[in-house]
Queue: 2 jobs
Job 1
Amino acid sequence: MRGAEDLETQASQEERLRRLAAAFESRFGRSPAAVAAAPGRVNLIGEHLDYNEGHVLPVAIDRSIMVAFAPRPDGQVRLYSLDFEQESAFDLEDIGKDPEAPWSDYVRGVAWALREGGHHLSGLDAALQGDVPVGSGLSSSAALEVAALGAFEAVSGLRLDRRDLALLGQRAENAFVGVACGIMDQMAAALSRAGHALLIDCRSLEHEAVPLPLGASGSGGGGGLSLVVADSGVRRALLDSQYNLRRQECQRAAELLAAAIAGRPVTALRDVRPEDLARHGGALPPNLLRRARHVVEEERRVLLSVEALRTGDVEAFGEMLNASHRSLRDDYEVSCPELDLLVELAWAQPGVLGSRLTGAGFGGCTISLVRAEAVEVFGEGVVARYCAETGREGRMYVCRAADGLRLHRLQRSP
Ligand code: ADP
Ligand code: MG
């Protein structure tokens, strides 16, 4: 089973820090000052709610991008990627993209966004390495942006509010790299706390840590539960066009409902309640009604999930995950046969409390809440069977709820 091999080959954090520092030293001929590390994330529930200004509930995972760095006095930035075995350098006074090393654009983008935000930056040397799977929907890009922001913040003597830091990362990705994304990923990478999920109100950007009863994380209620991420191996071919279409559909549905609902402002589907939809759903054509129903009910499910987690009702939380998947499949229509298969195999497995697709859909990953003693069987009964039936490279990651951005000072070797 590939998932189990994956677990064994994941190097410990100490080992990664040591290797990264050694690579920095051999590249730049001096020791790094520190290492900034930021995690990938999965969204537990609240899918496609960010642009509808609702709530989302991501959790930072114990896979991260690490950036070892030391300041430079000359306004130059020299980067080395261990994973791409490639260097890329730029001048802070003249920041453009590097088509030869597109991974560096995320770092260039945050330097650009910081300067645009009026911050004075120091140059730096940096070596970076990550173990967040790339392009699976676990947001390696936000991890890289947030870790790079942590490095620039430290060398430049800045003290950024963590929410502002997340906004700078989002700005880098939107305006510099050129990818439309919401604020969830960067906030999760910047603000999460180990053992907790992060409830984010995507309208106000208020946020709150919600304790998770994951036994394996050594925190929370010790309910003996594991969070299992299963990667379908399907890369999201339809995603861009369908994602933009869903955004337009939601906007249109909100406009039509705003006209029907008198006496209360409706600027996004966030403002629509289940009873509004029951009364005024007739104002929408059938496909928009389905989209709106997903958003309105998913928003309710997020808040009920938080309540269930707070009271330790993990069965109720699992049911919310299942209902979310059905809604994404039938009403929002962003699933695909592979994601449905992973979820259905999980549903049929003993010890699985809930399972659903996570991320924008059309490929990427599912998450499942699994009793710790059933995780191994999950590998056989879900991931191995999925691989056999589809011929795809499915993988699984058993995740802990990790901290957001952290700065590691390195111990000097004697
Ligand atoms: P994801 O869903 O993982 O965020 P994206 O396409 O948004 O996928 O971002 C992936 C990109 O982020 C990679 O193509 C690469 O440019 C950059 N990236 C991710 N991980 C690393 C890494 N370990 N080292 C360098 N760049 C990375
Ligand atoms: Mg990304």
Job 2
Amino acid sequence: MSTVTYDEWRRRAADARRDWPAFIAGKTGPAASGATFAMVNPATGKEWAQVASGDAADIDRAVASGRAAFEDRRWAGQKPRERKAVLLRLAELMQKHKEELALLETLAVGKPIAQAVSIDIRAASEAIAYYAEACDKVYDALAPTGDNDIAMIVKEPLGVVGLVVPWNFPLMMACWKLGPALAAGNSVVLKPAEQSPLSALRLGELAVEAGLPEGVLNVVPGFGHTAGKALGLHPDVDCIGFTGSTEVGKLFLIYSGQSNLKKVWLECGGKTPNILMADCPDIDRAVAATAEGVFYNAGEMCTSASRLLVDRHIKDEVVEKLKAHTPAWAPGDPLDPASANGSLISHGHMETVLGFIDSARGEGANVAAGGNRALAATGGAFVEPTLLDGVTPTMRVANEEIFGPVLSIIEFDGEDEAIKIANSSIYGLGAAVWSSNISTAHRMARRVRAGIVYVNCFDADDITTPFGGYKQSGIGRDKSLHAIDKYTETKTIWIRI
Ligand code: NAD
């Protein structure tokens, strides 16, 4: 919790650092080209900072720095408990600077400051602490080969890992990957989203303060088609950990094929079906969770509960109750600790979201709440929390990821139809089932094709459980000890004795 007042946040925002160099080989510096790009606060529409615009030359330098650090084993060669101590110090420093880091997130992406402190930065530092603890607690294995042989199965770091992350939870998405990649002993080149690079740049500085050797973590801000592509194509990068859209995720598979067959792990889009069966155990609780699930973070969530599949026997009641919840998720100034919601990431994205709402109207859906831009006088990219009733499974809003505060309400009749609609998506990240019959709930949780299935809850979350998707939602899992596998090679050492 933070006790900082609205006035104080505004004062700190006015004083925030304006110039942001890249962070390569343990030092800050300009991009090789000298170019910079502007940060625009989406809640005001105004430019407020300049960031070094890294491109292929900067990626080259960052990869070379990571490779040098890996080859001389200044990090991988440390005792596991020493690596643990450094990462625990980093997690502590993130907590110590939580308000500073949270403000950078809010100014970049328009998310409410209270949530940035209590969710984003807390979860990011918890991820670093969790993987720090794993450093000296995960054991290698011995194969059952008999008395005359010792066959060891050991895990080794990959080398240089490139991380490319999105803007919706900037530091949290980065730390879900950084934690296991660093704990395993790799060097990292982190390319944050161009909309939200500042918290990652500050993290680079904090990592050196925590004792991470120079060159182990490099942060190159820049655009996707320049810096991101250069990292994906780089012949000396061993692995890419990517979170972002499915469209760009597919490009990284191509980059890998065109270069050195680097490993590629993808956390991509979603179109979560949230299924309310007629025997939903508690409609009030399900409706509250649905509203939070789709409107939290202005709907800019890969697991957003964007498709409500509701049994026709309870649909009218559910829609009426949802209407009563919607005002609580109206947007406000992200710097106001009382705001439950902030702006969308940009004016361009706001137009895209409003375009989705228009397309639903055009295809015959009914706008039961919201549907418009909000707080236009502020100059910010705000959209009202929106309920679209009467959506059918073939409409555009039922199939494409909107990434905004828009709920598509789809009626079904019985379990088979619910599962058929739920599974009709190209995505398979999250899903939820609400039923008071444990057999129904369990059967449906098994039948739905998704990496995370919530039963009688939504978006329950912990660093100990794997996170990732089926189908075009991705390849591999973030979080939990499983994530460490993505950043290690498995080696067999066979000794005849
Ligand atoms: P995006 O795909 O546009 O960008 C993600 C990253 O890829 C950014 O760093 C960007 O600079 C980079 N990039 C863009 N074009 C590139 C290119 N041509 N080559 C190389 N790199 C490139 O995604 P976004 O708009 O930042 O984020 C929203 C998307 O992220 C949504 O689809 C959302 O579902 C997804 N997401 C998924 C998860 C998950 O865990 N599955 C979590 C958060 C967000």
